[in-house]
Amino acid sequence: MKILPTIYITLLSTTAAFAPPPSSRTFNTLHSTTEAAIASTANDEVNPGDRDILVRCASGKQVERTPVWLMRQAGRYMAAFRQYSDKYPFRERSETPSMAIELSLQCHRAYGMDGIIMFSDILTPLPTLGIDFDVVKGIGPVITTEVRNVEDVKKLKDAESVNFDETLPFIREILTSLAKEAEDANTSLIGFVGAPFTLAAYTIEGKSSKHCLRTKEMMMADENGSSKAMSLFLDKLAAMIGNYGCHQIECGAQVIQVFESWAHQLSPRQFEEFAKPASQKAIRIMKEKYPDVPVIYFANGGSSYLELQRDMGADMIAVDWSVDMAQARKILGPDIPISGNIDPTILFGTKEQIEQAVRDCIDKAGGPGKHLLNLGHGVMQGTPEEAVGWLVDECKRYRGKEA
Amino acid sequence: MKILPTIYITLLSTTAAFAPPPSSRTFNTLHSTTEAAIASTANDEVNPGDRDILVRCASGKQVERTPVWLMRQAGRYMAAFRQYSDKYPFRERSETPSMAIELSLQCHRAYGMDGIIMFSDILTPLPTLGIDFDVVKGIGPVITTEVRNVEDVKKLKDAESVNFDETLPFIREILTSLAKEAEDANTSLIGFVGAPFTLAAYTIEGKSSKHCLRTKEMMMADENGSSKAMSLFLDKLAAMIGNYGCHQIECGAQVIQVFESWAHQLSPRQFEEFAKPASQKAIRIMKEKYPDVPVIYFANGGSSYLELQRDMGADMIAVDWSVDMAQARKILGPDIPISGNIDPTILFGTKEQIEQAVRDCIDKAGGPGKHLLNLGHGVMQGTPEEAVGWLVDECKRYRGKEA
Fold this sequence. Notes:
Two copies of one chain form a homodimer.
Chain A lengths: L5 H9 L9 H6 L5 H5 L13 H6 L20 H7 L4 H6 L1 H15 L3 E3 L15 E4 L3 E4 L6 H6 L8 H4 L1 H16 L3 E7 L1 H10 L7 H11 L5 H22 L4 E6 L7 H22 L5 E5 L16 E3 L6 H8 L5 E5 L8 H14 L6 E5 L9 H13 L6
Parallel strand pairs in A: 1-4, 4-5, 5-6, 6-7, 7-8, 8-9
Antiparallel strand pairs in A: 2-3
Helix pairs in contact in A: 1-5, 7-10, 11-13, 13-14, 16-17
InterPro entries (chains A, B): UROD/MetE-like_sf (IPR038071), Uroporphyrinogen_deCO2ase_HemE (IPR006361), Uroporphyrinogen_deCOase (IPR000257)
Family (chains A, B): Belongs to the uroporphyrinogen decarboxylase family.
GO molecular function (chains A, B): uroporphyrinogen decarboxylase activity
């Protein structure tokens, strides 16, 4: 396989704005460029198993090595990505197919992760229920539709009659193109959704919130029987999200990750009473319709109540970096496939430290099989680009302590 | 016992600025004022066991009921407290004995927790090493002394030769008065210190930080052998903090809580390699000199690696609200006394919900004995004052499922 120097790739990506995605031939030549990749024989030719190694792993099937992708692998740490993010607001980037496709592919071209993930946001489907949002630079998401009581929930659109091709037409266009790109690049296509509680809390608070006090007051009102607004809202969101996951699968996604991004806001009891059953419902909708498509559940900040996540109905549990992988394995049990969980700040370390972290994580998860390597949170802004390559390459190279 | 209406207590507190603390006679009449307290026979007369029930519990001794205090029990949720916090900057309030004493006592007068905690901050002793800080309204603590490398650490003052009576003369004055007040009020006096990693990270970052990237880069430099700045800094801080804890004990504190407030910034590996040995050293210094004074260790945001906290050298482990108390008990084992861990947002619920949360927490911890009730984080601003009373009263009333 021909290896191009990083500088050439960056130039290509930079000039590719709004251009159709590169042809499959070009695409396939733009694989990992780091020293380790050049040295590694495993990466020097296309391995037919790479196409679905991530999907098989998430399904709990035997795999020949630990697959890898990174949350926020398409992100601001890449100069090529910033060419877009500095220029176009988030919704334009994520809802304009040519841009969303390009932004999804950049990192895979550069580092060859085992999956391409659609560039999008967990809030993207909210407008299907009549909830308006924007992502404001320096503030983050801002939601202008008020949902505080039963009447507000009833005013929202019916989750069952959402037509995603009508309300979010760009999703089919993006995923259909990416599915073709993934096939040509011999890799998998990952879709994702936000979990109902997180979307509810975002909506109720209107923006990022330190304590989610309004949301908690609504949960407490539900618990003491003075309102059913929270349960009704979560139920509606769960139905929409389940259907949205199915839609992504129908458009080409081969695996769906469910992001409970605000799990750190929940006490274990609140997780059990509100967030968990709502996520279970969304997952159940996907699994009943598409039993062979694996679902990964990730509760960010929920590592202190992993014991409650054994029965989410998902095929794989993703864990954040605040728990030791060996302890996560112990609490979740030997059978559940686990995704995670390297501390993203490790990517600011040396090549040796990054490679050691990869090996430690794989070994603690029990070696290849039942483990999909990822960070325990998204790639941080400012992460050196080459560090991402070192991580991906070491994961593809390492075969565990026994090898 | 005579019960005064809340309004009268508030007036008294409000007019007490800079006045000497109320005499013990006045003090004793200003006890819990809530309905539950009035109804409870247990609170109607002074129980001699109340004087040291918190200390005995933290030491792992048998207690007749679950004792209770609340992190940030002296805080902005109280109108009487805001009379000071709206007017005087933090350092003035915490370093002027008459104010610090008054602010420590207000909550105990109103709600009768099982301990009075000195109104102070974990950063208070930093100037003893030559590290300057201020607490800026709306920003929080700001530290102006740069510590980034070995030279910076070496420029700091020697931890072993700190004379706390010279550098922080107000501490002896505050604690000596509070010790007398606690004795008169038939309750315990709690001292506290920040853990070395948290103080190091605060200093290195200069202020509150989302990712503590500088601190993590310093830890990684230590790990790859390119610098010893972090180890040296932690070691110096551990010595100072250990000695500072001893000083508080010598001034009258009967129990010391160690706050690792930024444990959420640490991966389990970083906790094990940096934060844990430094905290162990600080705790060891206190326990070697004062083996009978219990030490409580609290890693805020560290509930996902409780398995690493069994051997801190502390008498009791405090847990935050992100872990289920039954799971914390399971991971820590049956013998370790545990403090915690009610979700502070529960205090925005109804009286019934608050009382239920108290009973659930006590039952999950295994009933009275080996459990000191607390929140899993500080009392939040905006918390209704009466809610704190409901929590304290229910804890004092409840004797566990078997009773």
